[in-house]
Recover the amino acids of this structure.
């Protein structure tokens, strides 16, 4: 996925999260966040898988795999519940905080970046399963903000223990990608 496309997805997801936080009461937010993440996940995974299937699988079926859809369902539910539980716990632990102190544009952007990274990882890993002639390579943003966890993994293929059991996103706000290369 091109960086500009990814950036546009991240900005739109963050905007949608902020809208949900602003417009809906707490009880309905979890369901709406889950639905939002699921819909964006399907869109990003479908886009990424179609591009990769054309490039690496020589005409293989380009539809989104059922395993990918099931993983998106599970992830969107988990993330939506985690977002709401984290917010609730912070409000309970610090009585001086308000929802607007926690539900900030920066937090929405971090969630959007992390989840976009996951959606791309999911799509790439599914194509890797279907196209045996490929290797996955970890790609960081290669700038001054790359963390010490991801920096050493830049351009390393997932062979043996090179990735030390990690997959993108390695942490909240992870901006890494996984690229496919022919063996």
């Amino acid at each position: 996925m091109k960086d500009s496309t990814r950036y546009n997805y991240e900005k739109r997801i963050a905007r949608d999260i902020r809208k949900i936080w602003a417009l809906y009461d707490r009880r309905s937010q979890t369901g709406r966040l889950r639905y939002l993440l699921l819909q964006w996940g399907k869109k990003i995974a479908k886009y990424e898988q179609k591009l990769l299937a054309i490039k690496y699988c020589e005409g293989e079926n380009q539809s989104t795999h059922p395993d990918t859809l099931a993983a998106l369902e599970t992830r969107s539910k988990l993330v939506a519940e985690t977002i709401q539980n984290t917010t609730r716990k912070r409000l309970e632990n610090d009585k001086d905080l308000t929802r607007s102190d926690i539900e900030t544009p920066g937090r929405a952007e971090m969630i959007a970046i992390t989840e976009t990274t996951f959606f791309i990882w999911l799509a790439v890993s599914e194509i890797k399963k279907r196209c045996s002639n490929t290797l996955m390579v970890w790609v960081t943003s290669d700038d001054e903000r790359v963390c010490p966890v991801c920096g050493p993994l830049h351009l390393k293929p997932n062979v043996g223990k090179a990735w030390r059991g990690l997959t993108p996103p390695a942490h909240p706000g992870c901006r890494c990608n996984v690229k496919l290369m022919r063996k």
